[in-house]
Amino acid sequence: MIHQALFLVDSSIYVFRGWQGLPADTRNRFGEPDNAVQGFTETLCQIIENHRPTMMLCAFDECFRKGIRNQLYPAYKADRPPAPQDLVPQFARCKQVAQALGIMTQGSDQVEADDIIGHFAGMASRQDLPVTIVTGDKDLAQFITENDLYWDYGRRGIATYDEVHKRFKIRPEQIPDWLALSGDKSDNIPGVPGVGPTTAARLLNKWNDLENLLANLGEVSMMRFRGAPRVSRLLYEHKSTIALARSLTGLINDDRLPQDLTTCERPPRDERLLFNALVDAGLMDDLAERTARRLADK
């Protein structure tokens, strides 16, 4: 059992995994597609049953490519296809299920789920409250401290700060700079041509951060790896690309987000009230009954 009090869930990933993992003909009590909802519900049940978090947040992506990043760079995520039509309405029901389970849900029309999680993780860090970030997205590892955990539920084991450092060859807080150098194809973020993840990690391990790296480009050419002079030149020629990418890879704030962690407190749920709320969200009676029995007073 993880003893961190606060769990921050990157919801969209687990909604998609539910949609991909359960049969397409799965239906709810209204005859609507329900595979994503049922898969997401099981993910939340597993977390609550096994780890009993006293505080929990499900962050949802709701800016739909109209947020701050797309204003800065219209090509951001532009090559991603839209969500399938049978999945789109299930996001709202997933949110409804999370709320029924006593979990705070949060979206924003300006920033992404990553930023919402980063916002709450930052508040927790300032209060010395350990968190577990539940996500399959490497970008979110930037928000963990030495007291926190990073968990790609269903795919990888729970990782500490040091284990994330070992996996990516850089410290978690260096991830935004790392992605600004090497780019991020999954988000269509440009990087420096010829500078891949390994070279970017080598540079940051030497110079610590982008500011120090760019202030020492002359010395980069003398580093002991093949092609160092060329990399030094490329960094100089693509300073503007690095600056643009860095504006996209780190935390972007939305001042309208809650400023108090008490909003994440998860109250005990009465079994009958929980059953009724899950039925309202579309779950079949038998599934709602089993779920309510599993999670009542937990």
UniProtKB/TrEMBL annotation:
One of its GO terms (biological process) is DNA replication, Okazaki fragment processing. GO terms for molecular function: 5'-3' exonuclease activity; 5'-flap endonuclease activity; DNA binding; DNA-directed DNA polymerase activity. Keywords: DNA-binding, Hydrolase, Nuclease, Nucleotidyltransferase, Transferase. The keyword DNA damage does not apply. Residues 2-267 form the 5'-3' exonuclease domain. SMART domains: 53EXOc, HhH2. Pfam families: 5_3_exonuc, 5_3_exonuc_N. The keyword Nucleotidyltransferase applies. Its EC number is 2.7.7.7. PANTHER family: 5'-3' EXONUCLEASE FAMILY PROTEIN (PTHR42646:SF2), FLAP ENDONUCLEASE XNI (PTHR42646). This is DNA polymerase I. It comes from Granulosicoccus antarcticus IMCC3135.
